[in-house]
Each structure stands twice: as C-alpha cells, then as structure tokens.
Structure of Glucose-6-phosphate 1-dehydrogenase:
Amino acid sequence: MALPPSVFVDVAAQIKRNVYDETCTNRVVIEKPFGHDLESSRKLSRDIGALFDEAEVFRIDHYLGKEMVKNILSLRFANVFYEAVWNRHYISNIQITFKEPFGTEGRGGYFDEFGIIRDVMQNHLLQVLCIVAMNQPQSLSAEDVRDRKTEVLSRILPIQLEDTMLGQYVGTRDGSKPGYKDDDTVPKDSTTPTFAQCVLHVDNDRWRGVPWVIKAGKALNEAKMLIRIQFKDMPSALFPNLARNELIIQVSPKEAVYIKTIVKEPGLSTNLAMSELDLTYKTRYQDVKIPDAYATLILDVLNGDHSNFVRSDELDEAWRIFTPLLHQIEKEHVKPMPYEYGSKGPDGVYQFVENRAGYKRTGLEYHWVAPQ
Ligand SMILES: NC(=O)C1=CN([C@@H]2O[C@H](COP(=O)(O)OP(=O)(O)OC[C@H]3O[C@@H](n4cnc5c(N)ncnc54)[C@H](OP(=O)(O)O)[C@@H]3O)[C@@H](O)[C@H]2O)C=CC1
Ligand SMILES: O=C1O[C@H](COP(=O)(O)O)[C@@H](O)[C@H](O)[C@H]1O
C-alpha cells in the first residue's frame, strides 16, 4: 500500500521520535513510491533528510537485489570479451523488457494514481539500464558504483512523448479476462497506461547513437524480464545477409544468459543455423538456492552496504528524465492504445522497435530447444 508523502514523512518522524537511538547505528529502509515527480520527490528527500542522514537511509529498489541484475557487473568487468564489445562500435540497440501476464487484479486503486511508467520504468528498468550502461567504477564500494550510475543518468535527456508508445489493456474477446477499467477500483474514464515503451539515448562516448528501448506492460502474453543486446551486422563477404547476434540476460522467470550464435548446421549440410551459447542457471547451478531479492537487500542493510540502494541524487536524475513526459501525458490526457489482455501489446509494438531503434530480425529463424 502506497503512503501519501505527508503520511510517509509523519511515520518517519514517529520512527525518529520513538525508535531512533542516538547511541547506535540506525538504518531506515524506504520502499517506493519516492514521490510522484521531480518536485514531490525533492520535497520528500528534504523532509527525510531533515530527520535522517543519507548514510542512514536505504531506498529499496528490489530489482537491484535480483541475482541476474547483481551479476551484470561481474559479467561486464570480469570477462575481457564482454567489455571489449560493450559499446557503440559493436552494439546496435538494447531492449530492457518487463512483461507480466496478469493485470492489476484489485490493486487498480493504487495503480491508477501511478501507472506503469512510475510503477516499473522510472525505478526498476532505469536502474537496470544504469548498470548495463555504466563505465567501470574505481572500486566496488557503494559510492563508486553509485557515482557511475548517476553519471549515466546525467547523460540521458528527458524522454519525449513522440519517443513513447502507451497502452491500456482491455478484456479478452471471449470475456474470460477483464479489462483494466473493469476493475471496480479504477475510474471508468481512466487513461492511465498499463503498457509503455520508450526510446532513450545515453549521450556519452560509449553509447552515442545506440538506442535503448525500455518496455513494460501488465496483462501481456507472458512473464518475462530481460535485457536484449543486439549486435551490429557482421560485415562478412563470406556469409552475406547474416542474422544478428544477440546477448540476452534473462532476469526472470528463469535466470539465464545466452548468446544467439550462428553455427554450421550440424551434419552434412554446410548451411548456417542460429543457435545459442547458453548458461541456464538451473542446469549449471543445480544445488544453489538463489535468495529472494528482498532477502539479499535486507542482509545488505544489516551489513550497512549501500551499493544496491538508490542514492538521493540518482533518484533526482531518474525523476528529471521522466517528469516532463509524465506531466505532458497527464495534462493532455494522452489516450493509451488498447491491447487485449494476454496479447503482446498494442498494434505496432514491434514495428516501433524496428523503426525507432533499428532492431532487426532478418535471416535465420531461431527456435530454442530447451534442455531435457
Ligand atoms: N536458457 C534459457 O532459458 C533460454 C531460453 N530461451 C527461450 O527461448 C525463447 C525464444 O528466445 P528469444 O531470445 O526470445 O528469441 P526469439 O528470436 O524467439 O525472439 C522472440 C522475441 O523477440 C521479440 N520480437 C518478436 N518479433 C519481433 C519483431 N518483429 N520486432 C521486434 N521484436 C520482436 C519478442 O519480444 P517480446 O518478448 O518483447 O515480445 C519475442 O519474445 C524465449 O522464450 C526464451 O526465454 C532461449 C535461449 C535460452
Ligand atoms: O515494484 C513492482 O514490481 C512488481 C514486479 O516485481 P517482480 O519481482 O515480480 O518482477 C510489479 O508487479 C509491481 O506492480 C511493482 O509495483
């Protein structure tokens, strides 16, 4: 349940009065929403800052506690071959995708005030983007890591409405699943987006010219959270018109990292086929229990480790990127495009990625054969 900022600060003040102990270390864990735009977030930060030091505050973004998100720094900075191609010279475009197969299911009252951009994009997806995009920190200390993330955010211009696609789900044709506005807690004239897709750019030497697409939607065809890095065309005289390589970091539901790789079709054929180099965690690490994201983050709090928590300047930058768009959507009552519950999103969802980000799906077909 989201607390309005005034109640939130009131609760924080009560904590300070009743629980705070000057003689020991105090740690306050705060869960989103951290305001609803740049101004309200700044006010909240000031009010919280009047009660607690930044070192005492842990702003949770549970995506930072997910195994595959925590893994990105190791993948990138512990392997010579990833870091070598992790730039605009080799990468064509990057998609960060969040899909849920269910709607608001009675939580519409909360959701309608926020919408998918505030609920998932401005925090979870943008945090993931920062880690994929950041330059190597000087050390793994919390402040070095957060400095690098903030640096990335500072190089992203506010997102424009024309670079955005908005959707809202409607009920299935056979009536088996309700539409967003069929939820009793949602106003019948709501224009709150339950789906959004935006293109943005990180304007620095590593990424200039590489489009990033962040996409999030509720009531879609599947549950999935992944980062899809598509590489540039291979300029091969030997094998013309090749499909592109992709590196996919699948955060959920099943942790995996795979690289779509072209091979010779096995057997007598000399044709090419799209295959994969596949690291599926469930098969590779059979006896390892991956802890829940919140559990790892609470442990970090107990250890006083801020690395996977959002600093106030990061939060400020994140709101700077989204606030003009959110205000415009609300002021102009921009109408989201309808999409059917359980579908892949509004019409044109893939054309948008192809036209606006240069995502290409030509050449070889890809079919994954799951290991037995
Ligand atoms: N280790 C593992 O667990 C592995 C699992 N797999 C699984 O195999 C399946 C296929 O793999 P995947 O990497 O998705 O490969 P695909 O080539 O099948 O890509 C399909 C995805 O591309 C997007 N897409 C489809 N058409 C277009 C288009 N015209 N323009 C832009 N985007 C388009 C869709 O994304 P969107 O989802 O955004 O709608 C779709 O899910 C997945 O379910 C994956 O999880 C594959 C390899 C390893
Ligand atoms: O913060 C939120 O995240 C969940 C999705 O989290 P996940 O760990 O299940 O991927 C989302 O359903 C919810 O709307 C949002 O507030």
User: Anything to note?
Assistant: Residues 63-357 form a domain with the Dihydrodipicolinate Reductase; domain 2 fold (CATH 3.30.360.10). The mean pLDDT is 94.
